[in-house]
Amino acid sequence: MDGLRAVAVLAVVLYHFGVPGLGGGFVGVDVFFVISGFLIGGLLWKELDETGRISLGRFYLRRIRRLAPAFIAMAVVTSVAAWVILLPFEFREFGKHLIAATVWLSNVQFWREAGYFDVAADSKVLLHTWSLSVEEQFYIVLPLTLLALRFSRRVTTGLLVVAWLTSAVACVALTPSQPVATFFLFPFRAWELLTGVLLALWLRADRRRIPGLAGPLGLALIIGAIFLVGPDGFPGWQAIIPVAGTALLLAGAGRAGPVNRMLALPPAVFVGLISYSLYLWHWPVLVLSRYWRDGYSGPMETAQWLGLSVILAILSWAIVERPLRQSFSIPPLQFVGGAALCAIALVAFGGVAFIRDGLPGRFDEQAQAHIAASQDFLQDWSRCTTDDEGHFAGIEICRIGPDGPPEVVIWGDSHLRALMNGLGLAALEADTPGWIIWRAGCPPLFGIIKEETAATPAQNAACTDANDQLEQAFGTLDSAKRILLVARWSYYAEGAGVGRDAQNLITMEPTPASGYAATEQPDLFGEAITRTVATLGAIFDEVHIARQVAEIPWYDSREVARGLAHGRLDAMDVSALSTVEEEKLAARVANSEFPIYAIHLSGNAQLIDTWQTLCPERCSILISGTPVYFDNNHLTNAGALAIRSLFLPFLTGEDT
User: Which residue from 115, 281, 400, 625 has the least number of CB within 10 angstroms?
Assistant: First the structure.
């Protein structure tokens, strides 16, 4: 058993540390699930079979002795390290995750936030606790189910089979449409644990039917999954491979053969013994060290941090996990009471971190300025709704200004989202009701199909569909007299980001019905925005275009704040990152601004020049010494409020 645990934990740890070739190393968690179901199910069924009852108190005491001490030790040390290293908004999230992990609900919390394979996942220090929460939820459900159905072994077995089948079918069927839910939530993972339970029941009844090739075949399936399975579409049907392999290995355990002899070797057994502690420690070490170091310098440094994970795991196992699990000198009530007090302390610590907004006073004033910018990007969504019917069905509309039919419409991409709070306050000041309609990475242009590397195919298609719908729907807004376009125009004209996000690519093509003749993207952009303004001009009395906020190529408030907090950047470094050379800026905006200024000079649209406030002499991330950029092209809410007066003529209908 310990040898199999070694295979599982090494697969997970090496995968997380980026060892090449182990693209499916995360299936080690699935192996652990089957092992847990096999051991716990077997123990509970044996007790029920022999005594007709299950001692819940003794069962949960064993679980607390087994799991709580090492988890508490990891959580305490990790909390201290996070307090030193993480920025306030990250430490605030850590506090929330610490609470969820301590009360066995982290899998639910991470399901609500994002996916395991998302880019942001590698900054969540306690992400790995999701699998522990799944197992702990299993420890609650299984014994209570067995107790409730103890009157009939046949009924109990039948119900377990039905539950296994329901969970497995739901997992496979829903993974394509709900991959995050099927990955994190217990109902969709229960079948893996129940595989172990049902195997234990079957082996207790009859071991004679096990073929001799079960062990080798099982190991081959697990190894194959580790090397061949990928995150796309997981768990789904792919999870069947490691689950079946683990079941076969467990079924063949105890038989003579090379596989079982290999798994029984002392090194494999030792890694299996420390597997729980190694799983607990490796992820916080990986995330916090990579965060603190701003990435690893190479394989040697990666190996050093991996080595630290192993050392901490051995210490945790030798000093905390094994002694407290095997020590019976501490009375059960005192042991449970001590664990409960530690859990309460962890929850309280997480609560303070969350309620106090990550304790920003831990850092100096210069870092705090950029920290404030990194936290100032959440808008007020209370007035945003999506209708189920009508011309704008399926389009999210955010209302600004006083209640009433919209007099103005503002249409754009994520640059508009960044300005929303400022525009909302300006609309109230102008006493003008309006609508904001935005979609990230979607140019407010008619007749365009876009393909973006930062978006999914579904999101790309939704952009074109929404724009086609809006072209027809805008004509039904009799109350709206003026429309404003807000977007990252240079991104669409050039086909790529700049500086920090230069890897983000976007290509545009004309829709079949557009009639656009241009083949090069800058020319297509010019043709599309000219045609779009002409179409809108036939619907609205006035069309306005906001000049794109200047891009500051290498600035990111989060990275600058981290660099200052951890001593990687000084004031001169920050100054260089916070400005842009005029020549480079002029070259960047030339292809996008040429057609926009041509439209403006022709009288077909009025231009709102955001650079009046943002670039009084030279474009930078500062207004009056305060950072107002979130990243290299989005303003913070403070920035949106600072430039809101530029939009008052549009909102009031006065001459600009």
Answer: 625
